[in-house]
Amino acid sequence: MSEALERQRVDKWLWAARFYKTRSLAAQAVEAGRARVNGERVKPSRELKPGDEVLVRVGELEWKVEVRAMAARRGPAPEAALLYVEAEESRIRRETMVAMRRSGPQTAVHDGRPTKRDRRVMERFRRGE
């Protein structure tokens, strides 16, 4: 991390902070509105400064972070984690979503075709009985 940088482009910072794998993906996310600065939709060229609040959505996960520092290059994950601090409610919500995803879908196990009895139950359900 470099202390000399005071401002940095949003797309470059999101890439350096490891929210997106490539800078072009970060730029596309900003253009699409999946990354907002201080609650506003911005262009990828918008400059960030320490203290700005960034809302980042990647898939169904969402981070609400405060910018702490800028990076001259993309470094390892422990170094990237020092660039921001995540809001507590954001962290809890994100961890809950991850836990729900890990638990997997709650689906019934089917062993082949339904029996005659199963078909009758399904038919009653469709009719609303």
Question: What is the compact description of this entry?
Answer:
This protein has 129 residues and is α+β, with helices and mostly antiparallel strands. It has five helices and seven strands; from the N terminus they run βααβββββαβαα.
Write a concise keyword list for the protein shown above.
38% helix, single chain, 19% strand, 129 residues, Structural Genomics Hypothetical 15.5 Kd Protein In mrcA-pckA Intergenic Region, Chain A, five-stranded antiparallel β-sheet
Task: Provide a descriptive summary of the structure in words.
The protein has five helices and seven strands. It has helices spanning 10-16, 23-32, 77-80, 88-103, 116-127; strands spanning 8-9, 35-37, 40-41, 47-48, 53-58, 61-67, 84-86. The protein has a single domain (8-106), classed as Structural Genomics Hypothetical 15.5 Kd Protein In mrcA-pckA Intergenic Region, Chain A, CATH 3.10.290. It is elongated. Strand 2 (35-37) and strand 3 (40-41) form a beta hairpin. It has a five-stranded antiparallel beta sheet. A two-stranded antiparallel sheet has the order 1-4.
Structural class, by secondary structure, is: alpha+beta
- Helix share, percent: 25-40%
Rg calc: 22 Å
CATH superfamily: RNA-binding S4 domain
Oligomer category: single chain
User: Total domains, how many?
Assistant: 1
H and E string: EHHEEEEEHEHH
Silhouette: elongated
The CA-CA distance between the termini, in Å, is 66 Å
| Count of separate DSSP helical elements | 5
CATH class: Alpha Beta
Average pLDDT metric: 90
